[in-house]
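Readers of this paper often ask what the protein records in our data store actually look like. An entry from our holdings is shown next, in its original layout:
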Amino acid sequence: MAHMRSLFAAVTFIFLTPFLSNVSAGFQPERPVAQVYRRYCVSCHGSDGRAQTSKGKFSHARDLSDPQWQADVSDERIFNSITNGRNVRGNMPSFANKLNENEINSLVDFVRRLKGPQQQQ
């Protein structure tokens, strides 16, 4: 009987170790970008990106749909703002510990789609 418990423990260890190492390394499963935006961005930038929420107005959040801003800003700058936060115009927190690189890249693409159809070229 003790032999069976040892065998069970060994098999369990072999199969669970890869999953446990991901958890201990801060592994986050991929989430759909719309879910990520709703979770971390909507309260300030609003569902349309225009930053017309009370929290967005109070914190001077960026209007992500502004065509001039969209034309002037690089994807790299958007990525860096999400990753590191910004404290220039408003106070945007860093999301480096909450989002993985793929989620941040997906958010950059999502932000690019926030400009209205009449503004896309």
Q: What stands out?
A: Residues 31-119 form a domain with the Cytochrome Bc1 Complex; Chain D, domain 2 fold (CATH 1.10.760.10). The two ends are 72 Å apart (CA to CA).
